[in-house]
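thread: overnight batch results

M.L. [08:02]
morning all. the overnight job finished for the chain we discussed friday. pasting input first so we're all looking at the same thing
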Amino acid sequence: MAPSTQQVAMAAMAAVGCTAFVTAPSTARGPALRSAHGQAKAQASSSSGSGLAALAICGLGAVGAASAPKKQRSLALRAFETELGVQPPAGFWDPLGFTKGGDAASFRRRRYVELKHGRVAMLACMGYIVPEYYRWPGELSPSLGLKFTDVPTGFAAFSKVPLSGWAQMVAFAGSVELFQYVDDPKRAPGDFENAGLLGIPNGFMKAPEGQKEKKLAAEIANGRLAMMAIIGMFFQNGLTGQAWGDWSLYTDSPLRALSPAQEIIAGTGGPLPDNFWDPAGITNGKTEKEIAMLRAMELKHGRVAMLAVLHWFHVAAGYHLLGDYAIGERMSNDPLVSLTQLPMGGMWQVIFTIMCLEWLTTYICKPPEDRP
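M.L. [08:03]
and the structure it wrote out:
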């Protein structure tokens, strides 16, 4: 692409400056980031160039400066695409662009935080699940006469645990954070020298040889899932008042208060038999006739879609005998290509059949108005 007038002017100005100030390039290089092709290695050499060479180099550098940010971002993406946590189908997933600068130190800090949050979230999920099936025998606080079985699960446990219990948990977490699991910049993020199998402090069991990287990748994936899961548990606990989110207790749900018009289709189409499912609020303010029309449209579209999916499958599998017979040759197994091979007469037959069905269901065998 030819340089613009502005770029040529920039090159000329840079060239004038370069003839007055010419220095030998530095051989120092910062730590190279890991890329998909390994560590990038660069070797710089200095030489005494003529003023004409400096003029050309500076001019080309000014003209090519516009493409530098794009190349830098591409390099930053390649720098981390072989790290742990880059898994299919998303691959290297950074929609907010946290790593676009290619800063290795920043990436390491974010990976360390991600691992810590994922591990805490996995423990939190277990803390929600295990008490539903098992509780320690005995008393949690003998002075208060509080047993382990008296402590509910979820948010309700916050008000039951005595202050001394909270102090013990904070002290334990602090000791692990400050003395047991201390970040070592020389090791990978979240890799602690004194952690054994399953992260037990000072554990004597170690991960089997050859499986460490696989287990670390699995830990990141499970930690990400646990972070999403615990947030879901918090929401259902807060909305329903129970750790496992009994829907019948969520009386303030906007999906529960139905208008008289919505009652005509209540109990149909929801996740449960007695539910009314309209998260987008399409039926709000609609009359009974309009809601019945919406339900009729939903049923019609669903039936057409089911037939279309079956047609797609059997054409892709090679079963299109009527089409082959109609045009006298073998049609494509690609449904979209097969559609273009259908003659105009066949298209009109399909349209005529649809119109006949519409006429029958609208005038001849019309369903009751209260049951579309």
